Amino acid sequence: MSKVVAGRIHIDSYDPSVKDYLALMKPRVMSLVVFTAFCGLSLAPGNIHPLIAISAILFITIGAGSAAAINMWYDRDIDAIMKRTQKRPIITGAINPDEALSFGIVTGVLSVILMALCVNITSAILLSITILYYVFIYTIWLKRSSIQNVVIGGAAGALPPMIGWAAVSGEVSWQSFTLFAIIFMWTPPHSWALALFRVQDYRDCGVPMMPVIKGDQYTKKQIFLYSVLMVITTLVPYLLGMSSQIYLALALILGAGFIYYTIKLFVDANNKYAKKLFWYSIFYLFAIFLSLLVF
């Protein structure tokens, strides 16, 4: 049982289950990360044994989950304040914070070692960079100190398709960097849309998200700017010969929908379209990578 007093967590007892440890790994966020990694693996030139491919995706999944677990451990003070995070397992008292940290470290180290031994060194290095970047650069440094937290920190979430690509090819290429760039440009409008309709949560816990520091209108302008850059970036795979004209058409249609929601934000005083943009952005990224995979 747990209770929150003045932003601090007081735990009477811990009784973690497998479900609690899975929740510690942020499965909803991780599912999109793993899917983009799978797309990178599938799009890469060359051949890979199915067992090695499955292993690579498994290690990426574990690595991403380890970073999420350490993130929850470090952010447990603000998670106790924010309404949308108060059901996380450390906050509810399901998992001891020290056990969560140990779980994150052990699974992270294992995922990198196994990736190096079972797949290749390049993918293992990229996986280690992803974990360390998310933990130290985003979680510990940028999240609480910079208005550009989700811009610079977004690099961690953009690396998985490069890891998948490297698992097959053993190298980093312009094609794999293009996949990285799509997610990198997608992250700010996705995150700022969430911040617009959850602004009070971020204000209460002192996280300097853009709407808190610069206000709604400035944030909406930045969302529009990054959305345009993102849509342009999604056209690059076609220019590099990675996709067909069908993908190009779908990217333009999906991008038009994204831009539509960003424009609607400017005439939306109550930020109702911010929530719609947030959910559309998740569908959008999934649809873009699925289109790359299929077409």
From TrEMBL:
Q: Report the subcellular localization.
A: Cell membrane
Quote the gene name from the UniProt entry. ctaB
Primary role: Converts heme B (protoheme IX) to heme O by substitution of the vinyl group on carbon 2 of heme B porphyrin ring with a hydroxyethyl farnesyl side group.
Recite the UniProt keywords alphabetically.
Cell membrane, Heme biosynthesis, Membrane, Transferase, Transmembrane, Transmembrane helix
Q: How does it sit in the membrane?
A: Multi-pass membrane protein
Q: Which organism is it from?
A: Candidatus Megaera venefica
Q: Does the keyword Transmembrane apply?
A: yes
Q: Which InterPro entries match?
A: Protohaem_IX_farnesylTrfase (IPR006369), UbiA_prenyltransferase (IPR000537), UbiA_prenylTrfase_CS (IPR030470), UbiA_sf (IPR044878)
Q: What is its main location?
A: membrane
Look up the record and name the pathway of this protein: Porphyrin-containing compound metabolism; heme O biosynthesis; heme O from protoheme: step 1/1
EC number, as in UniProt: 2.5.1.141
Name listed for the protein in its UniProt record: Protoheme IX farnesyltransferase
The misc remark on file is: Carbon 2 of the heme B porphyrin ring is defined according to the Fischer nomenclature.
Indicate yes or no for the key word Cell membrane. yes
This enzyme catalyses: heme b + (2E,6E)-farnesyl diphosphate + H2O = Fe(II)-heme o + diphosphate
